[in-house]
Amino acid sequence: MGTGSAGDLRQSANGMMWAGILAIIIGIIAIAVPQVASVSIAILVGILVIVLAVAWLFAAIGSGASGGWKVIGIILSVLLLIGGLWILFNPIDATVGLTAVIAIVFIVMGVVRVVAAIGDTGGEGRGLLAFGGILAIIIGILIAADWPSSAAWAIGLLVGIQFLFDGLGLVLMSSAAKRAIGR
Fold it and tell me: What total number of domains does the chain contain?
C-alpha cells in the first residue's frame, strides 16, 4: 500500500472521527432538550416537504405526460406545498401528528420483527431480532399511551438517541480504521 493510500485512509478516518464527535454532541443536545429537537425536526420536515412540492411541480410541468397526469402532478405539488407550509408555520402541532406516525411505525415494525424471528426457525440472530421487535413494540406503546403529550419529547429523544449511537459507531469505526492502517 502506497503512502498516498494510507494518507487518504487516515484522512477519511479523521473525517469519520469528527463526524462521529459532532453526531454525539448533537445527540446529547437533542436528548437534553427533546422539545427543541422535536420542533426543529418538524421544521426540517416542513422544509423537505416544500422542496418535494417544488420538485413535483417541475416534474409535472416538464414531463411529457398527458393533460390528466400533468394536472394530477400539479394538484399533488400544491397539496404538498400547503402541507409543508402548514408544518413550517405550525411545527408544534405538526409534532403531534409526526409522533402518532412514529408510534404506529414502531409498533408495526416491532410486530414484523417478532413475526420474522418466529418464522426464522434455526436462524442465528432470531433471538436478537425478537428482542428488538419486542422493544420496538414497547416503545411504540409507551409513545402512544402518552400521546399527544409525548409529542413534546418523543421525536427529539429518539432522534437524539439515534445520533448518539451513530456518532459512537463512527468514532469506533474511525478508531478501528486508524489501528488497521497503523496510525
Answer: 1
